[in-house]
Known about the structure:
By secondary structure, the protein is of the alpha/beta class.
Amino acid sequence: MRTLIQNVQILTMKKGEKSFHGELLIENDRISAIGTNLPKTEAKANKIIDGKGMLAMPGLINAHQHTPMSLLKGFSDDCKLMEWLEHKMLPAEARMTPEDIYWGAKLAMAEMIKSGTTAFADMYVHMNEIAAAVQETGMRASLTRGLVFMQNDGGKRLTEALDLIDRWHGQADGRITTMFGPHAPYTCPPEPLAEIIKLASQKNLPIHIHLAETVEEVAKIKTKYNCSPTAYLHNLGLFTEAHTLLAHGVHLTHGDIQLLRGMKGGVAHNPVSNMKLGCGIAPVAALIDTSVTVGLGTDGSGSASTVDMFEGIKAAAWMQKMEAGDPSVFPAHQVLEMATAESAKLLRLDHETGTLEAGKKADLILVDMNKPHLQPVHHVESLLAYAVNGSDVDTTIVNGKLLMQGRKLLTIDEEELLHQAAIRARRIVDGI
Ligand SMILES: CSC[C@H]1O[C@@H](n2cnc3c(O)ncnc32)[C@H](O)[C@@H]1O
Ligand SMILES: [Zn+2]
């Protein structure tokens, strides 16, 4: 199958490359050619997409998500993280059936496809159902069985994590990869955490974990282990043993950031969730100055209310400009890079996605720029970072396959999805 997208403005997100008018040829799952006036592309194509008025860019990569929490959006807002988690989310999650997880995950995937996300990192439970939803929807995902060791059934959960890895790593035409997912320093004692780090190192698989999200977490770990959450993970060898995706990293001291220097992986910054839960402002500039990779995530819509990465892009830029008291920090190109190429590094997918290049996977979106709020186009990247909304995405392509065109979902029955989500969400929260 060869698809040609012609007559389109292209932003590759390759370092130092400006946007240009041209064409892009997709052969099966990969980009085979990209540029201006490519020779004989029309003759080679089975399908032609006219990109007039559109902007082609790499699909956005959501580096931290809990997809089934889409069923809990708006259920508990305006309260502190621990209260939100312990009194609202956990009781609701205890009522979710595997089928609820499947439909909740699919609901988040529909929202992601419709707002320009092509790949995401997920941490949750009942991962077979989430993997099945990924297989059907056509998205790319790095899946993690979240591991909480507060009760005695941690062993069973670890077995489930290993089962996810055995069954799904590399499946769905390679669109699914897996990680280990110890939930957070405050839910994972040293012994099981050390075991997980050893397993991740042996299997050469990454670890996805929440870190230093609240001041309460920092105080808890200090009381329990007499160190910071970051030092706790460092002392267990995490940052040298495994590629690590750290979600949040809000409360990091200068000393903590030094412990992250040279780590494989990096930090998923979740500005919307952090602001909405009143957690604080992550030291993104200091992390980047220390050569720590910082990608962008939304967190689940149970906290963030939305998994629209274009909202995250705006929030990240504005939050850092405000914090620095300097509008020149985090310019448009840099925040777009966080949501694409840098997030790809966190998912260990940068050899395949994150930029538009011949040879890479065809994971890309077309943004419809022919709208009042997106005209005139002085600087494409400024509009993408500060003016585009998720609903401006017209077309979403993953692994060379169209998942949405003209805003119509092509792999999901939207009507059935909305019906299932509504009845299930009502049942789950009823009486909590
Ligand atoms: C064991 S699966 C994942 C687990 O994480 C919970 N969760 C969702 N968002 C957050 C967050 O911001 N901080 C900590 N934990 C979070 C989710 O409810 C699941 O129980
Ligand atoms: Zn989270």
